[in-house]
Design brief:
Helix content is 30%, strand content 27%. It is an alpha/beta fold. The longest helix has 16 residues. Belongs to the CobB/CobQ family. CobQ subfamily.
Amino acid sequence: MSFNGHARLITVLGTQSHAGKSTIVAAFCRILKNMGYRVAPFKAQNMSLNSWVTRDGGEMGIAQAMQAFAARVEPSADMNPVLLKPKGDMTSQVIVLGKPLGDRKVGEYYGSVDDMMRIALGALERLANAHDVIVIEGAGGAAEINLYERDIANSRLARAVGSPIVIVGDIERGGVFASLYGTYMLLPEEDKKLVKGFIINKFRGDASLLKGGIEELERLTGVPVLGVIPYKRFSLPSEDSVSIDDKADGAGCGVDVAVIRLPFISNFTDFEPLERLARVRYVALDEELGAPDILILPGTKNTVSDLKALRGSPHFERIKRLAAMGTPIIGICGGYQMLGQKVIDSGIEGGKAETIEGLGLLPVTTTFGQYEKLTRQVSKRVTAGGPILGPLKGTTVRGYEIHMGMSVSGSPAFEDDGCVSDSGTVIGTYLHGLFENGQFTRALLRFACEKKGIPYKQTATTKDPYDELASHVQASLDMHRLLSIILEN
């Protein structure tokens, strides 16, 4: 497999999942962009239920879209040519160059990895011929020795394109020197030669305490430690469900928002704008729901399975009671489908033909009649009334759709999309990114505050989180050495 791209390359690998690769790649993208380089991110294969829709309707991992924003370029499916969306039972939906290829068992997918590698290299080559620098992100841990021959995202890709490698270790999870050293030592000999630096990430404390360990790691490997990055939170989209456990439990304006943590929750990045303004809890089906001021049913990769799980939990009847009390209930995508009267599946979602009763809070019926996914960016006018949407009537909201199934509604919320209850407090929509629309988020929180009897205080955020991230990382690394690695390869 040949590669003829002309850009300079740098590959960021991790000692494990959630080591911070995605944010470091985003930081590198913004740093290089601020220096005047045309830069783009790339991840050959991503496994995530958080995705983004490009302008031309392609689906890609949210992390690569976030990195594209950091690079100030338009997200493209070439930046994440293979996306795996787990559906359970060792099955994932395989998205190739933005389009669904179909559902594949693990064994079936592994049998096609050489084809996926060719597709990935083609996408990387196109990017590399249109940019000055490509920042490549690995997947999971780089030293999964049982997967080397099937791993198209880590050192096998770096070797194929001759990219230098930087390995990131997460010190917060413990054993960072062992994990960095072990990862390096387990790489094939030809791949070790590509490793040009280590980064220690998420450190809390006095970095001088690491001096002896850093010196010994450098002596054992001959690879320099480029820096120690202090722990800090940034307002950036999360990549996968692991991130839910790391979310801060903030107070915000005093409104308590409960997001039902469905087993196959997807695109929970939808609610991160709310996290900066209110207390947002992700509540599993076996956890206490309490009395939230707002309840959200999120998107899901498997509506049928998650609706059955919800019906079998105490939350099912509790959500109905909250709706009867006038608590705002918002359903996004699969959550919208669950708010309806019923879901009719011809076998597309659950594997067999069946009809499942929904919550019955909206006059909506959803049908899964064929294996067809709608992915597009949209702009819609607010057409519904009620205490939340009424004040916004005639304004425009923007978002993106990623869904299977068709829903028939007699009371749409946004032109031909979604549905609103007679009370106006139960709202369903297919629009991901709805809470990025400040006027909608403010209207929802204002209503919740008034109902709770507390003043609504609007919070303004003016800082660019990507510039904040870039400055934080840049201050922590040996930039001269890093830039030499990137620009002299």
